[in-house]
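Progress narrative, Year 2. Work on Aminoglycoside phosphotransferase domain-containing protein from Streptomyces capoamus advanced from sequence curation to structure prediction during this period.
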Amino acid sequence: MLRLAPDREASVRRRRELRLRDLVRPHLPVAVPTSVAHGDWAPGLAYTLDTRVPGGTADAYDVSAVGEADLAGLLSGLRAVPARQAEALGVPRTAPRSLEALRRMAVHAAGRLAAADEFDAARLQQLTPSGAAQLTAQSGTAVLIHHGLTGAHVLVSADGRVRGILDWTAAALGDPAEDIAGLAVAVGSPAAVRAATLAGYGARPCLRGLWLARCDTVLRLTDHLEGRTGGSLPLLRTQLRRAWEPILLERVTDFPEDEPEP
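Result:
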């Protein structure tokens, strides 16, 4: 697969991705593309020629129970990558997002979706301001995150196994709930939460990831319907449905301040 960086900023990310994939590969149970050639296709603009990883996208295939174990291995493998080594490659640190700020924006957007008969705005009432405060990211929990887990980047075989993860250009050291959120949109909230739990994450990051995904999908669909962004309307509706699939642990309860997280 030939990938051409369109500008210098993207070129920096592509060159960093080459080294990062070599760093993460030994830690992961799923395939990461290998570059068979790389260089500049124009002055200062990078290209990479990557091996093709077999499998279809998570938008086309459902993940099985064994596939959920593959995703758990992905999350635990990323957590095992030494942060200093990732930072030495130039991987940036990102601050956790404010779930309360995201919740407020999503509440307004949900009202507009409800008016368009796209969403039941009352569903967002499950996440209260106090609940969002309970799900604030804890300090000292930053890990290497893919930060771009979409259905298009998660490769799944016909039997539901996860075969590979594509496009590591957005990787960062940050909030692990972001990757849980990405998986909720890509494969559905129940599968994402089960995978994160199997990877050793507790209720707080799982619920934080769930609600990041739910708010994000409400905002993305609203932006599309109001003409601010492009993309596929059926896919955005599917992503909204996946993120809002019910899970067993829906209720945000009080968490001890010293609750350990991996």
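The mean pLDDT is 94. The radius of gyration is 18 Å.
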